[in-house]
Amino acid sequence: DSPLDTQVRKAKLLCDSQFVPAHFRGKPADLLVAIQLAERIKVDPMAVLSGTFVISGKVGMTTAFMISLERKANIFDAPIRYEQTGEGDSLAVTAVGEINGTRYDATVSMAMAKAEGYTRNKKYATIPAHMLRMRSAAWLIRLTCPQVLIGMHTADELEDMKYAEEAPRLSPAIEALNARTRGETEIVEPPAPEEPQAQEEAAEAVEG
């Protein structure tokens, strides 16, 4: 068999396994791509399956998986460390890494997250420091060693972008008015009130 035939057979066998993350079960085509990605970056296929997700039609890796890829490549002298300042709306987290003793950092604050619309994601209210850590780590790696990302966003970034792109929902009345303005719906006149005699005849018919 060719390498592709082997990968296809492997994907078909794995797609119904309980060991495979739920978001890949029953999707042999997605599994095939994940297996090919694992072979390309030389990591265990299960690591790719656990560390990648499809969000709004785009494939992204978890920040934890991205950090593990950086550690595997051994780009920073030591694991990324975090410096946290402020609280509430002034909370900010800086991810710090060193390469040959030279400091590189990336800072993300709640003010930035709000300005970008990311805080529509409720996790910024429940675990703000964690979300800023993940964001700052992703920025640090993207700025200093983008080859680790192999052209992908993190799942956290895709989630943030999804919430940022979601426009606030208009009220049904305003939506109906906009649709009517665009000519998408007909203006239907309400029925004229029935004459008293017609109302009496209808009531008699029901009672009879």
Summarize the entry for a quick read.
50% of the residues lie in helices and 15% in strands.
Q: What can you see in these coordinates?
A:
The protein is an alpha+beta fold. The chain is built from 10 helices and 6 strands, in the order H-H-H-E-E-H-E-E-E-H-H-H-E-H-H-H. The chain has helices at 3-14, 28-41, 45-51, 63-73, 110-116, 123-126, 128-144, 155-165, 172-181, 196-207; strands at residues 52-55, 58-61, 81-85, 92-99, 102-109, 153-154. Strands 1-2-6 form a 3-stranded mixed sheet. A hairpin with a 2-residue loop joins strand 1 and strand 2. Helix 1 packs across helix 2 and helix 3 packs antiparallel against helix 4.
- The computed structural class is alpha+beta
Q: Could you report the average pLDDT, rounded to the nearest whole number?
A: 80
Strand proportion: 5-15%
Name the helicity range: 40-55%
Strand and helix order: HHHEEHEEEHHHEHHH
Number of helices: 10
Low-confidence stretches: 186-190, 195-208
Tell me the Rg in angstroms: 27 Å
Q: How can the largest sheet be summarized?
A: 3 strands, mixed
Q: How many strand elements?
A: 6
Gross geometry: globular
Strand order of the largest sheet: 1-2-6
Terminal Cα span:
81 Å
Keywords for this entry:
single chain, 208 residues, alpha+beta, 3-stranded mixed sheet, 3-stranded antiparallel sheet, 6 strands, 15% strand
